[in-house]
Design a protein that fits this description.
The protein has about 375 residues and is mainly alpha-helical. The chain contains 14 helices and 5 strands. Helices cover about 65% and strands about 5% of the residues. The strands form 2 sheets. The chain has a 3-stranded mixed β-sheet with strand order 4-3-5. Strands 1-2 form a two-stranded antiparallel sheet.
């Protein structure tokens, strides 16, 4: 880890915590909360300040970066990047309280993505080993698909505590572990965002300080991951113009479970003749919760699969201790969730009786897991 990061880490953590705590109180006082309803599981209003709590300090960091000359990028290009993220955050914030039509949301997403493409944050030439892929005229549509895909996947997966934020943290962690961040001028940006997401998750998974991302947060995190994947794929000065495939593959792998969920949801809703944007309770996490897993094991299963996908694209390039950790941690989570699910299935079939409580009554699966499942909330 570069020595400069030892100062960056505590400063970012303190700043992120202060923003999350301050904005949480402000959201409550202004009644900017997510209210319970028949589709959502949480029973009390929860502040929708998590996303703003990430974007506000991130904006401050970007303003300082721009004021200092936006190292690694021309000033106008950096300003375009900042503007695009601001457009998405503001649109998501409005949508949280005055729902916008899907067409309006997609239009703003397309405009912000086009702005990013126009300032050079784009998919154009990709280096795949010894092969160079020049996208040519496909550069613009594929770049729009790239950013809009990440944004909407993050938004669709924001249906349970820790799910969307954890998926983002896996993507950023994969970029950090890969080692490419240390040689890139954008490496500190990955570290800063990862720390801010970690602080948000600490609030989101808390009982007393709980906050939700809201659309403003989930959309902005998705766009941020797409941006950083491309920026870290950019070659160093004098090393050609083609993007390295590895950072792109890492962020795609981290979001692979979410991408699969979105694809299945689109197919399912289309077959039923419903709008693909009509929210339902049939996402992967909903199915696992209904199958008997509590929210912790559901997160472990889905995040474990994402972690294994990141390992799969990283191990051919990097080995050693980090590769072993990248395999053991997510695989243990997936195996543990599988064992837990098997146990629940056996209990439900009365093949194995649960342990007796002191009063002699049996502890049912439902009563055991209801308090945990109550942490989940509705998603798109």
């Amino acid at each position: 880890m570069p020595s400069s990061w030892f100062t960056l880490v505590p400063l970012t953590l303190v700043l992120a915590w202060l923003f999350q705590e301050g904005l949480r109180h402000l959201a409550v006082s202004m009644d900017l909360v997510d209210l319970p309803n028949s589709r959502k599981i949480h029973r009390r209003p929860v502040p929708l300040s998590g996303g703003i709590g990430i974007f506000a300090p991130l904006s401050l960091a970007m303003i300082v970066w721009l004021a200092r000359g936006a190292s690694g990028m021309e000033f106008l290009h950096g300003l375009g990047l900042f503007t695009a993220m601001g457009m998405i955050t503001l649109t998501g914030f409005i949508d949280d309280f005055r729902p916008l039509s899907p067409s309006k949301r997609l239009l703003v997403q397309a405009m912000a993505s086009f702005l990013l493409w126009n300032v050079g944050v784009r998919l154009d030439v990709i280096q795949l080993g010894g092969f160079t892929l020049d996208l040519g005229l496909l550069s613009l549509p594929l770049t729009l698909l790239w950013f809009m895909g990440f944004m909407n996947t993050s938004n669709f997966m924001d249906g349970m505590d820790g799910l969307s934020g954890g998926m983002t943290l896996i993507a950023l962690g994969g970029l950090l572990i890969s080692g490419g961040t240390q040689s890139s001028v954008f490496g500190p940006a990955v570290l800063v965002l990862a720390l801010m997401v970690a602080v948000y998750l600490a609030f989101n998974l808390s009982t007393r300080r709980k906050v939700f991302l809201g659309d403003s947060g989930s959309l902005t995190l998705g766009m941020s991951v797409g941006i950083l994947g491309i920026l870290l794929a950019k070659p160093a000065a004098g090393a050609g113009t083609a993007l390295s495939w590895h950072p792109l593959a890492i962020v795609l792998a981290a979001y692979s479970v979410g991408i699969a969920d979105v694809a299945v949801s689109i197919i399912r809703r289309s077959r039923r003749g419903a709008s693909i944007f009509k929210a339902d309770s049939h996402h992967f996490h909903h199915r696992l919760l209904r199958a008997g897993l509590d929210w912790k094991w559901t997160l472990a299963a889905l995040h474990g699969l994402a972690g294994l996908a990141v390992f799969a694209v990283s191990v051919p390039r990097y080995g050693g201790v980090w590769a072993l950790i990248q395999f053991l941690v997510p695989s243990s989570a997936v195996v543990g969730a599988g064992v837990r699910l098997l146990k629940v299935g056996l209990v439900r079939q009365s093949v194995v009786l649960p342990m007796d409580k002191p009063d002699g009554s049996h502890l049912s699966v439902a009563s055991d897991e209801e308090p945990e499942a109550m942490r989940a909330k509705g998603g798109r």
